[in-house]
Amino acid sequence: MLDVQILRNDIQTVTDKLIERRNFTLDVNSFVTLESERKTVQSDTESLQAQRNSISKEIGHAKKSGDEAKASELMSQVSEFADRLKSNEEKLGNIQEKIHALLSEIPNVPNDSVPIGKAEEDNVEVKKVGIPRNYDFDPQDHVDLGEKLGALDFERATKITGSRFSVMMGAVARLHRALAQYMLDTHTSRHGYTEVYTPYLVNAESLFGTGQLPKFEEDLFSVPLTDEQNFYLIPTAEVPVTNIYRGEILSMEQLPTKFVCHTPCFRSEAGSYGRDTRGMIRQHQFDKVELVQFAHPDHSYDQLEELTGHAESILIDLEIPFRTVTLCTGDMGFSSAKTYDIEVWLPGQNAYREISSCSNFEAFQARRMQTRFRVGKGKTEFVHTLNGSGLAVGRSLIAVLENYQKQDGSIEIPTVLKPYMGGMEIIEPS
Question: What range defines the domain where residue 417 resides?
Answer without folding.
Answer: 120-427
